[in-house]
Design goal:
By secondary structure, this protein is α+β, with helices and mostly antiparallel strands. It is built from four helices and eight strands, in the order αααββββββαββ. The strands form two sheets. It has a six-stranded antiparallel sheet. The longest helix has 11 residues, at 26-36. The protein is globular.
C-alpha cells in the first residue's frame, strides 16, 4: 500500500489486530503487547496514535502520563518520543531496562519498539535524550486482583522494583 506521502507501507500483524493493517504501527505494537499481557484496557487504555495516547493518559481519569525529566521510568512503562520539529509525539515503545551509569556512559534506557525500520527492535538511549517526551506509567493492580493472586491466576503484574522488563502475563 502506498500512503499519502508516497511511501510504501507493508502489512503488520499488530496493525491487523488493531484494524489498520497498513498503518504506522508503533502504537499498535504497544497496544497489542498490553492486550497480549492481559493488561485491562479500562485501567490502561490502548491507542494507535502516540499523541492521542499521551492526551488520554494525561486526563484526570487516568493520570498516567509523566514528563521526561520529572519522572524516573521503570521497566514496563511506555516511552513516548518526538523525532521531528513538530510538538506532537510520533513514536512509542516500552521501557525494557534501566542501565546504570558507568565510567563510559550515564544512565541509559533500553527499549523495545515496533515499526523501527519496519521491524521490532531493542534500542538504547541516554535517559536525558532530547527525543524522549515522557512516559506512560502502568497502573498498579486493582485491590481485587491483588486478592486473586492468593487464589489463582492473575491477569498481569507490574514490577516497579526491578531493572528488567515490568509487565507479563501469568498462569
Amino acid at each position: 500500500v502506498v500512503d499519502e506521502d508516497g511511501k510504501i507501507r507493508g502489512y503488520s500483524r499488530y496493525g491487523d489486530w488493531y484494524g489498520d493493517s497498513y498503518g504506522h504501527w508503533c502504537a499498535m505494537f504497544v497496544s497489542f503487547c498490553l492486550n497480549y499481557a492481559e493488561v485491562d484496557e479500562v485501567l490502561m487504555p490502548y491507542d494507535a496514535s502516540c499523541q492521542n495516547w499521551i492526551e488520554t493518559l494525561s486526563e484526570e481519569e487516568y493520570d498516567l502520563y509523566r514528563e521526561a525529566g520529572e519522572y524516573e521510568p521503570v521497566p514496563g512503562d511506555l516511552i513516548f518520543f518526538n523525532w521531528d520539529s513538530l510538538p506532537d509525539s510520533d513514536h512509542v515503545g516500552f521501557v525494557y531496562e534501566i542501565i546504570e551509569a558507568t565510567d563510559d556512559h550515564g544512565v541509559q534506557i533500553k527499549t523495545i519498539e515496533g515499526n523501527v525500520s519496519d521491524t521490532v527492535k531493542y534500542r538504547t538511549y541516554d535517559i536525558d535524550d532530547k527525543s524522549i517526551m515522557g512516559y506512560g506509567q502502568l497502573p498498579e493492580k486493582p485491590e481485587e486482583d491483588q486478592d486473586q493472586m492468593a487464589k489463582g491466576p492473575m491477569m498481569f503484574a507490574v514490577n516497579r522494583s526491578s531493572s528488567s522488563t515490568g509487565i507479563w502475563a501469568t498462569d
